Amino acid sequence: MTGDETFEDLRPLLFSIAYRILGSVTEAEDAVQETWLRFEAAHVQPTSLKAYLSTVVTRVSIDVLGSARVRREAYVGPWFPEPLLSDPYEDPERAAELSDSLSMAALLLLERLSPLERAVFVLREVFAFDFPEIAAAVGRSEAACRQLAVRARRHMDDGRPRFDADRAEREALAGRFFDAFRAGDVEALRALLVADVDMVGDGGGKAPQWAQRIVGLENVAHVLVTMSGPFQAIGGTVEPRQINGQPGAVFRDRDGGVVNTMVLEIVPGGIQTIRSVINPDKLGHVGPVGDAWSVVREANRARLASGGDPLPPLAKRRLPE
To answer: At what angle do helices 25-42 and 7-22 cross, to 10 degrees?
Structure first.
């Protein structure tokens, strides 16, 4: 960073810090905006603008995280971070750490940490801040921050699976998965899923979804094939994309409205976890949001018209007539 940088130059870094602390695109954007307002109101000329703004956005994010956790405790069904299609902050020297810390799996592990542990871990392990900078950002001593960092790293290491599949292998397998999904090829899907594959959806009680968790190769492959044909028959499209730095896809209705995002967690041997975010409140930043209830209702009619069985029953709410 140079002394000539402006707030706008640092905005990508500030957003990236806030998103990893909060797991929400909307809340991260609000935290960055609040940081700007505080900076403007303070009329200061800090020695290091990066350090100053990083401190402000971290403190704002910690405050927001406290109230966000209360809301998440009352959340209907599994809670996932808001999907992020691209991280605006780039640092070639820390590309691996940035990518790893952005994954759905990593963000869900961060949820287990206290707000202070989470902030310290993000600043230290992801963005390589020095402990004096971290201490200033979270309002604790350097010694306390070192202890927080050790605890946070231990919790993260204990929960993080050891993935050996490299990026090229993940991309190739994901490509085969979405080809098989679009083709409704159940045998091809079975070959790509591990035996204890887990498919989980975050609808927040505001969108149609099948049982919140489906486990097992046969069960998951059956549901995927059951969904695929009717969805495409009514003009739905599957757009493979990198989501949170991992292979995934955006599902759109015939008018281009976003109805779902899907992320694949891949381990040696195949796909371990499939996470979908269906809650419309979490999809607005991806694009115009479609009516998922209408899509499922129409897909069900298409399946029945073709002689197939009805789609699997939906969780939490009955399918509208």
So the answer is: 140
Prediction pTM value: 0.91
What is the rounded distance in angstroms from the CA atom of residue 83 to the CA atom of residue 80? Answer: 8
Distance of CA 64 to the CA centre of its chain: 18
Fold of 7-159: Butyryl-CoA Dehydrogenase, subunit A; domain 3 (1.20.140)
Instruction: Report the C-alpha gap between 155 and 138 in whole angstroms.
Output: 19
Task: Divide the 321 residues of the chain into consecutive groups of 10 and give the mean pLDDT of each group.
Answer: 78 98 96 97 91 97 91 90 95 89 94 95 96 96 97 89 73 96 96 96 85 87 91 95 96 97 94 96 96 90 77 48 40
Cα-to-chain-centroid distance, residue 128: 22
Q: How far apart are CA 188 and CA 190, in angstroms?
A: 5
Please tell me the distance from the alpha carbon of residue 36 to that of residue 29, in angstroms, as a whole number: 11
How, if at all, do strands 193-202 and 270-277 pair?
parallel
206, 280 Cβ separation under 8 angstroms: yes
Alpha helices in the chain (DSSP H): 7-22, 25-42, 49-73, 95-102, 104-110, 115-121, 131-138, 142-159, 167-183, 186-192, 217-233, 292-305
Long-range contacts of 43-48 (CB under 8 A, 24+ apart): 48/1
According to DSSP, the residues that pair with 262 across neighbouring strands are: 249, 276
Planar angle of CA 93, 125, 141, nearest 5 degrees: 130
Strand runs (DSSP E) across the chain, as ranges?
Answer: 193-202, 213-215, 237-243, 246-252, 258-267, 270-277
167-305 CATH fold: Nuclear Transport Factor 2; Chain: A, (3.10.450)
CA 299, CA 308: separation in Å to the nearest integer?
11
Residue ranges of the chain assigned to CATH 3.10.450.50: 167-305
Q: How far apart are CA 185 and CA 57, in angstroms?
A: 47
